[in-house]
Amino acid sequence: MIKLLYFSVIVVLFSTYTYSQSYKYLKKGAWSAYLQLNNSTKLPFHLQISGSKKKPIFTIHNAEEKIELSSIKTINDSFQIDFPHFHSFIRFVVKNKTEISGAWTNLNKGDNYRIPFGANLNLGKNVCYQQKPLNLTGKWKTTFSPKTEDEEFAVGVFKSGDYSQKITGTFLTETGDYRFLEGLACNDFLELAAFDGSHAFYFLGKIINGEIQGEFFSGKHYQTKWIANRDENFELRNPDSLTYLVKKDPFAFKLKDLSGKEFLFPNEQSKNKVTIVQIMGTWCPNCLDETKFLKEMYAKYHEAGLEIISVAYETPTVFEEQVQKVKLLKSRLNLDFTFLIGGQANKALASEQFSMLNQIISYPTAIFLDKNGQVAKIHTGFNGPGTGKIYTDFIKETEDLIKELLK
Asked: Less Cβ crowding at N or C end of the chain, within 10 Å?
């Protein structure tokens, strides 16, 4: 099995602390890190340690993505680093100057959802050394859980080369993409991985008669098979066609704002305004990508008449805790548009609250309303910056729509 290095998380340790007297600082350089998904499967990633002795910087790569972690706690002989946008953290101990170990805990999945974590100073070469690169550049028709009741189609979009073993890309599904994936492809093997504090994705594949056949691991519980074949013409269903109006009633809803007061839509604030209603959750990486995009649109077009209302569905069961999640996101991203609380993360609940639609099948879902409050477009899921040209084309198309609606 190929052992790789991947991801991208920049961890800046701002606190002043000391290690045990024997290990005042870790050695700088390239480290091999991993999450132990199960007894036989490690999700590998690349860890770079730099900075000063008092403030080391931990850098992890998800292709082009960079995530900064600035919160650190000292707990006895351990260090805990919190992810900024997701309710999760890595806690580790320093075993010596070239080895750390601990666990990643994802509180969105429960207090006991932990995956072992470790890292060592990288003194050797990976097993792909001097082996033939595998060129997989292009589009691949992909099937997850083939020939089962859970069968799902996707589009694999990869970039690799004849002279490099590095491969990047993602998988597009009808509810969003798998974000930034990076790995190695050599001889007839493929390995891709991504870790963002919310999801831990790991793909293994082998080329058999031109077809990729492999295993997909998500976190410590989920595992399924996948196959892929080159197909530049394969397309998923249009994401603007999956959720649609089923009632002629006006688009209206009543939910609570962050102070607990009832918020009615439509209202005076929305009168003669173009409004985007976003169905989302702070725990959702694709929602985070969409929220960053909506922030850009709001900054450009709010004065021209654009309003954005984000309806959050959160993992806690208590309203006050749901509010805290949203307030934290608003503060960290400096978001000025309106946020409401839909309730606990449950697509059936969201579908009930927005009963004028056939169903909510994905977080996120964006509903575009014209100045008269009529639905102009409903976009299911979000294919973010990890999808390259697909993302840039979406930005142009959506911005053109906003401009047209604002006329």
From this structure: C
Tokens of 103: 């666990």
In terms of domains, do 117 and 145 share one? no
**CA distances for 43 relative to 25, 182, 215, angstroms:** 26, 12, 12
Residues ≥6 apart with Cβ < 8 Å to 33: 5, 44, 45, 46, 47, 60, 117, 118, 119
| DSSP codes joined into one string, 38-51 | ETTEEEEEEEEEEE
Q: What is the CATH number for 343?
A: 3.40.30.10
Rg (CA), the chain: 22
Q: Does one domain contain both 46 and 163?
A: no
- Beta-carbon-side half-sphere exposure of residue 109 (alpha carbons within 13 Å): 19
Q: Tokens at residue 350, please? A: 């969201």
Please tell me the pTM assigned to this model.
0.85
Residue 153 and residue 104 in one domain? no
Total domains present in the chain: 3
pLDDT (tens digit per residue) in 274-327: 999 999 999 999 999 999 999 999 999 999 999 999 999 999 899 999 999 999
